[in-house]
Automatic annotation (TrEMBL):
<protein>
    <recommendedName>
        <fullName>Trimethylguanosine synthase</fullName>
    </recommendedName>
</protein>
<feature type="compositionally biased region" description="Low complexity">
    <location>
        <begin position="97"/>
        <end position="109"/>
    </location>
</feature>
<dbReference type="Pfam" id="PF09445">
    <property type="entry name" value="Methyltransf_15"/>
</dbReference>
<dbReference type="GO" id="GO:0005634">
    <property type="term" value="C:nucleus"/>
</dbReference>
<dbReference type="InterPro" id="IPR019012">
    <property type="entry name" value="RNA_cap_Gua-N2-MeTrfase"/>
</dbReference>
<feature type="region of interest" description="Disordered">
    <location>
        <begin position="97"/>
        <end position="124"/>
    </location>
</feature>
<comment type="similarity">
    <text>Belongs to the methyltransferase superfamily. Trimethylguanosine synthase family.</text>
</comment>
<dbReference type="GO" id="GO:0071164">
    <property type="term" value="F:RNA cap trimethylguanosine synthase activity"/>
</dbReference>
<dbReference type="InterPro" id="IPR029063">
    <property type="entry name" value="SAM-dependent_MTases_sf"/>
</dbReference>
Length: 244
């Protein structure tokens, strides 16, 4: 869902302080016309800002907008489906872990005949060459995902409390399943059922940040700040209201 510029700036400020200092990459997986990615770049907080957009015309518009704001060179643009992009990241990370394990086994002399294991390692290395370049590779412990998906569904806009399981084309479960290994931020309808969001809180966390962003006193969206599945820092925050 497109985010207006005042709200984008508020979210960028909040995200800058919410994310732990070791996070240096933010990925806007529904890049759209670039509003959020531009705000992230303007914040100066991130070493890398990556925006993923599957529609070529929309991506071209986003690149133009970034040029207008003077941050075109600060954003890496990816023309792809975001779910494919994240799935490829996961595949690459798994293969790298396998390679590291094989290398450790070799170094510790636990792999039996060295030639056999070495051949397997070389085969894995060859497969890795078909994966994403280093400039696009993500490290879960250093990355935050931002998702502002399109909204819709049966009777959307008519429900006092919006059932996120009916959100189309991507419901809450689909979004969380793609992002759970990263700290991730979900931009959701303002009437979203907060009880459904609460079910996503990882073990070891008492509460998470869920913020209503308002313009002139009117709520425009609810944004959930969700840690990765494994807790990494002391939880803070709670339900908040931010005005723009």
């Amino acid at each position: 869902m497109p985010t207006n510029q005042p709200t984008s700036s508020k979210i960028a400020d909040h995200l800058s302080s919410w994310a732990s200092e070791d996070k240096d990459t933010v990925v806007d997986i529904f890049g759209g016309v670039g509003g959020n990615a531009i705000a992230f770049a303007l914040s100066g907080r991130w070493a890398r800002v990556i925006a993923v957009e599957r529609d070529a015309d929309t991506l071209a518009c986003a690149q133009h907008n970034a040029d207008v704001y003077g941050v075109a060179d600060w954003i890496t643009w990816v023309h792809a489906d975001c779910f494919d992009f994240l799935a490829q990241q996961k595949q690459q990370q798994q293969q790298q872990q396998q390679q590291q394990q094989q290398q450790q086994q070799q170094e510790q002399g636990q792999d039996g005949e060295g030639n056999g294991n070495g051949a397997a390692t070389r085969a894995s290395s060859s497969a890795t060459s078909t994966f994403l370049p280093e400039s696009l590779a993500l490290q879960p412990d250093k990355t935050v995902i931002f998702a502002s998906p399109p909204w819709g569904g049966v009777n959307y806009g008519e429900q006092d409390v919006f059932d996120l399981s009916t959100m189309q084309p991507y419901n809450l479960a689909t979004l969380h399943a793609a992002c759970w290994q990263y700290d991730h931020v979900l931009y959701l309808p303002r009437t979203s059922d907060i009880r459904q969001i609460a079910k996503l809180v990882p073990d070891g966390w008492d509460k998470i940040d869920v913020t209503q962003y308002c313009i002139h006193g009117a709520s425009k969206a609810m944004v959930a700040y969700l840690p990765a599945k494994l807790p990494k820092r002391k939880p803070r925050g709670g339900h908040q209201v931010a005005s723009a």
